[in-house]
Design goal:
With about 100 residues, this protein is of the alpha+beta class.
């Protein structure tokens, strides 16, 4: 996701391990994973990705630690285009790993 936003908008975001996407120390998004393993084999994997693209106001509990792309950069992100490209790249990378 970070690479896609750079390619499309020249927005440089960082990944704060283990799963936060940040800009200037504020969280813009994150990635969560959950897996089910049986007999040392992954049976299922659920991946959740969230990104604040358009939110301009955050409640008082998180306003000092959260932000959005529109708030920081003053641009409107095409969420459909970003998601489409993310899914395309993700599928390609998963297919390569499966067929090693």
């Amino acid at each position: 996701m970070v690479e896609i936003l750079w390619e499309k908008y020249q927005i440089k975001l960082a990944i704060k391990p283990p799963n936060d996407i940040v800009y200037n120390g504020k969280k813009i998004g994150g990635i969560l994973t959950e897996s089910k393993v049986q007999a040392e084999m992954v049976k299922c994997l659920v991946i959740g990705i969230g990104m604040n693209t358009k939110k301009m106001h955050f409640n008082s509990k998180i306003q000092e630690i959260a932000t959005s792309i529109q708030k920081e950069f003053g641009i409107t992100v095409d969420n459909d285009a970003i998601l489409t490209e993310f899914y395309r790249q993700f599928e390609t990378k998963i297919e390569r790993r499966i067929h090693r």
